[in-house]
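#onboarding

Welcome to the new folks! Below is a worked example of what a typical request in this channel looks like: someone posts a single protein sequence, and someone else replies with the predicted structure as tokens. Don't worry about understanding the tokens yet, we'll cover that in week two.

Example request:
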Amino acid sequence: MGLTERIKELSLQNGVNYFGVADLSKAKQAILSQGGSEIADFPYSISLGISLINHIVDQLPRRSERSAALNYRHHAYDIINQRLDTVASIVSGFIQRQGYTVLPIPASKRIDDERISASFSHKMGASLSGLGWIGKSCLLITPDSGPRVRWVSILTDAPIEPTGELMEEQCGDCSACVDVCPVKAFTGKPFNKEEPREVRYDARKCNKYFEKMKERGKIEACGMCLYVTF
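Example response:
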């Protein structure tokens, strides 16, 4: 069994539903711009995804009720992110023991409060590995689970094999995720790798929405773009 298959097997054994490997040379400039030279020096990314519990996501129209918001925030966000970070740590340790350099990127931690971004785009890595396409919501859309998946990434110089190619965008004329957003954070423009995220999505609108929830003593939960597009 080759190294890529061994890593995939270990990942699946530890509870992930999605596994992909991307050749990052195709997006080096975008990676450099977002994360800097340390991040951009890695030739490959491993994408690991865990599907959300559909029934919990389906309750999001009732997120003004504390029980629905709490379930979503806990089981569809906090716990899933913890699981992703744990498996990323396990897989990273395995790769390092094989003699290669590895860097796990936290599942949901920003490093830039101005741009509201992480050091590496999980969605970009997953799309480059052939697991889905980036929709008008700027979420990764998978063929079988839609956007109801959370992701973590591992960067490495291990000689692993890419798992797929960019998938053709399949949103068409649908604008459900754009229309349902309570703060109108999406412009409805399809993804274009040559354009900055701001052309499609204003992350500050989401951020302010969550800040207001927190100020009012409410649980920070929205996720309507996850709810409507599956």
